[in-house]
Design brief:
Blueprint: E1 4-7, H1 15-29, E2 34-38, H2 43-50, E3 54-57, H3 67-80, E4 84-87, H4 93-103, E5 110-114, H5 126-134, E6 137-140, H6 143-152, E7 160-162, H7 169-173, H8 179-185, E8 194-198, H9 207-218, E9 225-229, H10 240-250, E10 257-260, H11 266-271, E11 275-278, H12 287-295, E12 299-302, H13 307-310, E13 318-320, H14 325-337, H15 339-356, H16 359-373
Parallel strand pairs: 1-2, 1-4, 2-3, 4-5, 5-6, 6-7, 8-9, 8-11, 9-10, 11-12, 12-13
């Protein structure tokens, strides 16, 4: 694999930025030079520097294209003789195209966009067509995202490359703590079944559907606990979380629902759980879904977005109708009542992650793509 550069013009620290950092670390571990263009003083800049990754300050002051920022990238790519530039967000494509035009044909720059978010509006106008023509490859993580790209753009199918987002499976397979130890750390009940969601406290993540499903199941005389691990979305503090807490109080579930803070090592959160729920109805991929699978948890996911590609019904998980607490309750009851079903789904889930979503799979796919673009 050749030397690569990644552009990530983000001051946030969420799934997208974490995925970029993981990719950089994995590629660097193969002995390749990787550099990162990102805003100075951002969380991803700090984390990359700690990992020994070369960081070059980049701040796109204009939303879609910044000529001075593009020029600085051109100078760096030429001086380091780097021929592959990966873009991580759609609003970086215009700047990336400008870089490719300025760097010149003789440099042979390959421009690759790594899509991690669904496209929501049509982008078939002449300007988008021009920019997309300049891309050498467009990476998508799942077949559902391929459909999304073909629906909303006029990108030629041959430019689309399917490369799933991946994880270091060993981190989750080899548990640091037992269930009892993990629950003690988070002050969760030592006995009883716990169903949980790991991720941002956000309306689109659907935590309220799990609370409502718990209420439905409790009325049937079946009891279990629910745990949420995560912080509120930045800039939206004091909105959705108070609603969830009010809902818990209104339904009389205070003794059954727990809100726990975000934890850097998510494997600790999964270690507390017996069942994982992916309730989001707008999830492009859902890293937490494959992390939960790698931990050996049965997963119940909303039949929507990228989750449709990750779960095989009754093989490695169960589906419920998106935004439907009744449908979620029905599937949870099946798992609560059957230890055998939980064990079968968990075992199959682990095997599917090891074969499809290991970071070694990612490195092999990337190596194949680079050879293809040479």
């Amino acid at each position: 694999m050749s030397n690569l550069a990644f552009l990530c013009n983000s001051n946030s620290w969420g799934g997208l930025e974490m995925n970029i950092l993981k990719m950089l670390k994995w590629i660097q571990s193969e002995g390749k030079q990787v550099i990162l263009f990102c805003p100075p003083y951002s969380k991803i800049a700090h984390q990359a520097q700690q990992a020994g990754i070369a960081v070059y300050p980049f701040k796109q002051k204009i939303k879609f294209i910044d000529f001075s920022a593009a020029y600085r990238i051109v100078k760096t790519l030429k001086s380091l003789k780097i021929r592959y530039l990966f873009l991580s967000q759609s609003n970086e494509i215009a700047t990336g195209v400008m870089v490719k035009l300025w760097v010149g044909k003789e440099h042979g720059l390959r421009l690759i966009y790594f899509q991690q978010m669904m496209i929501g509006i049509k982008k078939k106008d002449w300007l988008h067509n021009f920019m997309y023509q300049k891309l050498d490859s467009w990476i998508v993580p799942l077949p559902t995202v391929v459909e999304n790209v073909l629906r909303y753009t006029q990108l030629p199918n041959e430019k689309i490359e399917l490369i799933p987002l991946c994880i270091e499976t060993e981190r989750f397979i080899h548990k640091k703590y037992t269930k009892a130890e993990a629950r003690k750390m988070f002050r969760l009940p030592e006995e009883g079944l716990i169903v949980g969601i790991v991720g941002r406290i956000d309306r689109q993540k659907g935590q309220d559907f799990l609370i409502k499903a718990l209420h439905i199941i409790k009325q049937k005389g079946i009891s279990f606990y629910v745990a949420f691990f995560g912080e509120e979305t930045k800039g939206e503090e004091g909105t959705y979380l108070p609603y969830l807490q009010s809902l818990v109080h209104e339904l009389g579930l205070e003794d059954l629902v727990f809100f726990k803070p975000f934890v850097e090592d998510t494997s600790l959160a999964y270690a507390c759980l017996d069942v994982f729920v992916m309730a989001s109805w707008q999830e492009t991929f859902g890293m937490v879904t494959i992390e939960a699978m790698a931990t050996g948890l049965p997963v119940v996911g909303a039949y929507s977005g990228g989750t449709k590609d990750l779960i095989k019904e009754y093989q490695n998980g169960l589906f419920f109708d998106a935004k439907s607490p009744d449908s979620l309750a029905l599937q949870l009851i099946k798992l609560i009542k059957s230890n055998k079903l939980r064990d079968v789904l968990a075992s199959n889930a682990l095997e599917s992650v090891k074969s499809q979503f290991s970071h070694n799979v990612f490195l092999n796919n990337m190596s194949f793509l680079i050879k293809k673009l040479q």
